[in-house]
Amino acid sequence: MGRTDTCSPYVAKRNGGRGGERWLYGASGFFRYGMPPVAAIVRSKKTGKEVRVIVRDHCAACRQGRVLIDLSPMAFLALGLTLGEGVARVEVRYLGAR
Question: How far is 53 from 64, CA to CA, in rounded Å?
Fold first, then answer.
């Protein structure tokens, strides 16, 4: 609670976010408000699992090159990763506007 290192769509509504923490969403540095959502396939280099996410938000840390994509908690879990382990190495393949 009170985290500031995650994008707002993934913060529960009770904590001031827009909700969406139950969905497979992502945020990326290229995304700008008003753009249509963009589908992407994200693969964990650790587990080899893949998940299809919808990029629907901007991520400032992604734009600055610190991370590639910011995933919702459910997308992170779907990759077989553990919440709280921090940054995970992934490959991202963008599929275009959905």
Answer: 21
* pLDDT tens-place string over residues 68-91: 888 888 899 899 998 887 788 999
Q: Which domains occur in the chain, in start order?
A: 8-97 (2.40.40.10)
CA-angle at 2, arms to 43 and 84, nearest 5°: 35
The H or E element spanning position 41 is: strand 38-44
CA dist 26 and 58 (Å) reads 9
Spatial neighbors of 18 by CB under 8 A, at least 6 apart, are: 8, 9, 11
On whether the pTM is more than 0.70, the answer is yes
